[in-house]
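User: My collaborator and I are trying to settle a disagreement about how two of our proteins should look. Neither of us wants to argue from intuition anymore, so we agreed to look at predicted structures for both before our next call. Could you fold the first one, then the second, and keep them clearly separated?

Assistant: That sounds like a sensible way to settle it. I'll keep them separate. The first protein:
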Amino acid sequence: MTTLQKRMADHGFESNDDYEYQLRCLENCTFNGIKTINIEGHKGRRKTAFASALGRALAYPNLLYYDFTQKNSLEGKVVIPPSEDEHGIAEQPVSDFDHIMSESCAFSEGEQTVLILDQLQFADFKDHIRIYHFIKSCEWIYGDNKLKANTKNLLFLLISEDSLYHSLQKCSFRVWINNVSSAHKNYSPADFDLYDDVLPVMTTLASVFDKLEVAPTHSEYKNILQDVHYTIHTEQQLIHSLYGWMEGIDRELIYSKAMLPLLTQVIEQIQTYHGVDEVVIGE
């Protein structure tokens, strides 16, 4: 597990997939605007979990988040600009979106800042265009206000269930987040502080994972092996442990007749591992 993987796991996003290379590509880019990651993937909130964990793993002092499905709530907020100008003309209240964009610019002036814009498919198309111009010019404009962002300190993370506006896509680096880990790890007993006598159990479990088309993360596998030691005695119990600890398991498939022979092989190896002798009743 790389340093980035470990830090992201510590902040709630564990995956066998490593994203250090993608970050290096972004860091090495000579683009003069705001460095931006377009986070794509299967539908669901795993992309949001990735963005949040990445922002925290980078240890930036400021992590800002805006979801375009949330309703504007101005209660308790300082309205910028003032509600009336010097001529007594009322100003329009600042939207939550403009407020978070203003904050990101302000924070970036002195400290590293991550801004996550989530559920962009619900944003007005005009806002897509505004975001694009902001990434290019580093200036956020609303009303008569113009704020400047520091490109060295600000990182933009965009999340949308639909394809991004073309111009936005062209000025961002695209990262795909699977709904489960796609990279398979060849774990050994030593990875879990176990002896090699558990290897036959792990070998038969690998066949089950291949059939289910899933790849357990380290913590998922650790929990499963814990159950191997203390609680799994039947195929049904094995199913409960696998489904209970792992993301992405097809419930219908794991309960299907096609899986039973593989599950039985695992149980047999678990019995051998524990030293359970098979008793045959007969002549």
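The second protein, kept apart from the first:
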Amino acid sequence: MSEKKSVTSRRGVLKGAAVATGAMAVPMVATAQTTTLRFQSTWPAKDIFHEYANDFAKKVNDMAGGKLKIEVLPAGAVVPAFQLLEAVAKGTLDGGHGVIAYHYGKNSALALWGSGPAFGMDPNMVLAWHYYGGGKDLVDEIYKSLNMDVQSFLYGPMPCQPLGWFKKPVAKVEDMKGLKFRTVGLAVDVFTAMGTAVNPLPGGEIVPALDRGLIDAAEFNNASSDRVLGFADVAKNCMLQSFHQSGEQFEILFNGAKYKGLNAELKAIIDYAVQAASADMSWKAIHRNSEDYIELKKAGVKFYKTPDPVLRAQLAAWDTTIAKKAGENPLFKKVLDSQKAFAARAGQWQNDYTVDFKMAYNHYFGRGAKKS
């Protein structure tokens, strides 16, 4: 048999085998299975905060290419807003979106990631401390002490929050005394020390309570949330600037077992989605909050700067509060010391290097600015 004929014969045998079995003729295609995670936010469906939760989920879903899908439900769909942590830890929910200060009742130290002046740090600096100054390890330590098997991601630096909505403008510290006031986290202790009667209501319950007179004044967060929740329908005075929650951010929670069960690729997608959503949220907040601030003015809302004596009274009340809490809770003191050490360094750099942007704004838009 010639070599040419031998090669032809071998090709014929292989071709026949492929036709006979069918398996080699058509390549097998593996079908990827989708892992679906059910999340709940702590926000009403119409709030921009719930939109932020969906923005994060969409980033994960888009990058995962069908391998992972996060579905987000609004507050109350499965559990009340303040029960999110337990629901995620127990596996009633696979994850959630909220703020860490909502877990203040479990350990007061958790409120230090949102309440108070953060030693002069803005919310983005608080996140810098969290990821590069030891904050993340401390959150993990606190959750472990509570037997909460969760994976926590902090993200999304919130703009400085207003003092809140009042039936009458606040002119002096004494105006705060005796008010039935809504806030959450360590701000509860701060305002209590200032003489208010605090009621820590979830976001969706604030405006109805204010409307019915169950509370006299309330704070929530920002122009966009406040507008859509209907604050302007029940109060016409909003006091801007406050230290009670000047450095807050959001928290994304995963059930510990569900998160650990994901492969390295999906965990990386989640990690980068958190970072992308953090940047996107901060940009969107500037855009939407500034638009809604104008709309609230058009609706007849009067905005006032919180008087400096009230701000100083907040700082004094904060000092009293943290001294008491640090004496009661070793983890509280541990978090506080870590935050303070980072703030002393980062704050000096921030304040020394940052130019006065208000000067430039007034140059172009303030009184006496040149008109083009």
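Some points you might bring to the call about the second protein. Residues 264-298 form the longest helix (35 residues). The two ends are 95 Å apart (CA to CA).
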